[in-house]
C-alpha cells in the first residue's frame, strides 16, 4: 500500500549514531473473539497452531502448493507432439514410409507403444497444423508435402490396430537384446526393464512383473510359469521382403506369400527362442529362486540332516571317550613305572646303607681290638674267629634298622668298655 | 473433492436451505424433491403419515394442531423461558423434564415430540434431500446459527444434527456465513491493509438480525449485534392479512378477524403477493373461499403495501441506528451492506436504508435468502479435507480469542493529521507494509515516527424532528421525509509517540518523492513492535525492535 506521505529528514536533535528509539509500548491489547471462518482465518489458525510467522507460513503454503502442482503435473496431458523434430526425418522420402519411425514422425517417441488413441489424435492434429502444405505455402515456403505425407502414413499405421501391432512388433527403437548372463549388475535392475519391455507382446493381461526380493515364492513361481507359457502376439509381417499384393500373377503371389510366411515363421521361432532364453537366464540367476531352492532342500532333507547330525554327534562323543580312556591308561602306566623306579632306587639305597652299616661294624670291631678284652692282643686266630662271629651276627641281623641297632649297641659297648659283652650278647640274640 | 461431498445447511426458524459446491465450482442452493429451494421447517403428523418440509407446510391449513413449526426458537430453552401460543392454530406444548415438547396426534394416538427430536427429524429430512440430490453420501455439513445463540443452544443443535446422521464439521454464525457468501473482505491484496466493515441485515421470516462485521485481512470480527423478533417477513404478511381482512369485510360484511382458518388462508396468499410486489408495482391477491364460501380477488399496489408497513420500515431503521450507536460507528464507516433473507428484497426496505446510508454499497449480488446456506457450503468446502480434530483445534478459544489492539497505530502527516497504519481492534499478530516517499531532494536520511492514536469524538447526530406518520398522504411526502445526513468516517488524532526510526545512507541526488521507502510494521502477540525501513532501489534497510 502506497501512502501519500513523505518521510522527512530526522530532526536536528537526532544523534547520528542511533537508528531507533522506542518511547512507549502500545496500549495493552484486549482479548476479543474472531470468527473461525474463511480461508484467512485458516491461515491465522495455521500460524497460531504451528507458531509460524507470516513469511514462514507463506513459505509452507507455497511448498505445499508446489508439491500439489508437481503431483498434478504427471497426469498433465497435452505435451505429446511437442518433441523436437530431427531435420533428417523432415527430409524423408514418403515412398520409404515403411522404414520411418512412425512414432517419431508424430512426435510420440517417448510414448511409443504406450501412446493412447487420444494422445495419437492430439499429436497428429498438432503435426498437421504445423506441416500442412497449405500452411507452409502461406508462410512463403515451398509447396513441399513430403513430410506431411509421412505424417499421414504414420497416423494411418498407428491408428489401424492391426498395422500398429505389426509396427510395434518390429519397432527398432525398442531393443530386443538378451541380457548378458555373466553380468554382475543387480538382478532386478537388469531384468525388470527387460520383462516390462517384453510384456507388451502378451495376449494375456495383466502380465506379472518381476517384483523384488520380498515377493513371495508363490508369486515368483507363477511369474516364471506365466513367462514360460508366454503367449505373444508379436508378428513379423512388417519385415516381409516380398510384396505379395503387387505380384503379377496368382502363381507369383502364392510363391511370394509362401516365402513370406516361411520367413515370418522363422522370425517368430527365433523370437520365441529369444524370449525363452531371457526367461531361462533370469530363472538361472534369480537370487530368490536360489533361496527358495535352498529352503526346499532344507525342508526335504530335514530328517536326514537331523539323523546325520545325531550320528555325527554320537561319533564325536565316542571319540572323545576313547581319547579320555587312552590318556588315563598312559597316566597309569607312567605312575607304575615311576613307582617301580622308586622302589628300585630305594632298594639300592637300602643295600648301600646296609653295606655301609656292615662296613661300619667291621671298622668298629677292627678299631676296638676285635671286641677282645683290652689287655689281650688278638691273635690271628682270634681275629679270624671274631670276624667269623661278626659275619654270623651280620647274617643274623636283617634289615637296615637292626643293623643300626646293633651298631649303636656296639658303639655304646665300646664307650662303656664292655664291648665284648655286648658283642657276645648281640651275637647270642641275633644268631 | 469428489470423495468428500460436503454441504452447508442454513437451519432457519421458518425455512431451511442446502448449499452445495457445484461441479462448475460455483456454490448454489439445491431444491428439494418438491422443487423448493427454501424448505419449510415443518413437521406434520396425520392419521396415516408423517410429513416433513414442503409437504408438511402444505397441509398446515387443514392440520394446524399437529403441525410443528418454528421449533428452532425453542431449541435449548427450558419450558419456562418460552411463551407458548396456545390456540387452535398451534400445536399444544407441554413441559417434558423442563424442556418444551409438542403433544401431537399421530395415527390416532397421542405422541410427545420434544423440540430436539423435531429439529432432528427436520435435519434428517434435509440431509436425505441433499443426498438424494447429490446422489452420494455426504461426508459432513456446516450449520449456521444466529449470533445470539447460546452455547447450550449450539450444543443442542449439534446433538440434533448428529442424531439425524449429519457429521457436523462446524457451526458458524449466520452473518459470518453470509459475509463468506458475499466474499466480503476476502480478496486481500498482499501486504495491503484491508479493513472493511459490513452491516449484515438479516430479515428472516420472524426476526430481524443486524450485525456489524469487521474484516481485517479477511478475518472476521463481530463488532455489534442486535435482533428484533417483532420484525420479519411475517410481520409484513400480518399487515397485509389485516388489510385483506378489512377489505374482505368491506366487500362481504363478513368479519374474519377471529377466524383462524380464514386468516391462515389469507396469509398463504398474501405471502405470494408480497413476494410478487418486490418485483412488480402491482400484484394480484386472490383467496378462494375465505369464509362462508366467499372468495377474495384484488390487485394490491406496492405503494399501498409500503404505506401500511411504514411503521415496520421505520422500526428497521431505528434498530439499525441503535446498533450503530451501540458500536460507536458512524454510518460512513460501513463499507458494505450485506442483505440476507428474502424480506430484504423489498424495494422500500432498500430505499429506506438509503436514508441512513446514502452512499454505501448495498450488496444484492447473492440471492439474499440463500446467502447463509452458500456461506456454510463455502466454509464446508474449505475445511472438507481436514481431520475433525484439526477443525476442533482451530476453533478452540486459544486460536479464536486473540489479543486485539485497542488504539490505532499510525504516522502523523505533514499537516499533523493522523494516518492509520494498524487500526484499532486489529487481531494480533499483525504485519502491515506501507510505502512512503522521501520528502526533500538530496535527503540523506529519513525519519519515521510511529504514534498511537485516539478516535475523535463522533460528530453529533442531528436529531430530526419526528414527523407524525401520515398514512393517507400522497406519495411525494415520502421523499420529503428523507433527511440529508452528513456521513463521516471516524477520525483520529495522535496521542503517544511509540517509536522513532531513522534510515540513513540513502542514495544521493534523488528527487523529492522519487525514493520508495518500504516500512514494515509488525506487532506480535506479546505487543512487541518491529519496524523495518527499506529503500527499495538500493535495498538498504534498518530494522528496529522494541524491548
Automatic annotation (TrEMBL), chain A:
Region annotation (Disordered) ranges: 52-96
Coiled-coil parts of chain: 315-367
Principal location: cytoplasm
Basic and acidic residues bias spans: 53-65
Biased composition regions of type Acidic residues, renumbered to the chain: 73-86
Species classification: Eukaryota, Fungi, Fungi incertae sedis, Mucoromycota, Mortierellomycotina
Protein species of origin: Actinomortierella ambigua
GO biological process: 'de novo' cotranslational protein folding; regulation of translational fidelity
Pfam families xrefs: DnaJ (PF00226), RAC_head (PF16717), ZUO1-like_ZHD (PF21884), Zuotin_N (PF26185)
The keyword Coiled coil belongs to this UniProt entry's keyword annotation: yes
Protein name: J domain-containing protein
InterPro entries: DnaJ_domain, J_dom_sf, RAC_head, RAC_head_sf, ZUO1-like_ZHD, Zuotin/DnaJC2, Zuotin_N
GO terms, molecular function: Hsp70 protein binding; ribosome binding
Domain J: 101-171
GO cellular component: cytosol
UniProtKB/TrEMBL annotation, chain B:
Composition skew (Acidic residues), residue ranges: 472-484
InterPro entries, per the entry: ATPase_NBD (IPR043129), HSP70_peptide-bd_sf (IPR029047), Hsp_70_fam (IPR013126)
Cellular component terms (Gene Ontology): cytosol; nucleus
An MF annotation (GO) of this entry: ATP binding
Biased composition (Basic and acidic residues): 459-471
SUPFAM superfamilies: Actin-like ATPase domain, Heat shock protein 70kD (HSP70), peptide-binding domain
Keywords: ATP-binding, Nucleotide-binding
Positions of region (Disordered): 457-484
Name the UniProt record assigns to this protein: Hsp70 protein that interacts with Zuo1p
Organism, scientific name: Actinomortierella ambigua
Gene: SSZ1
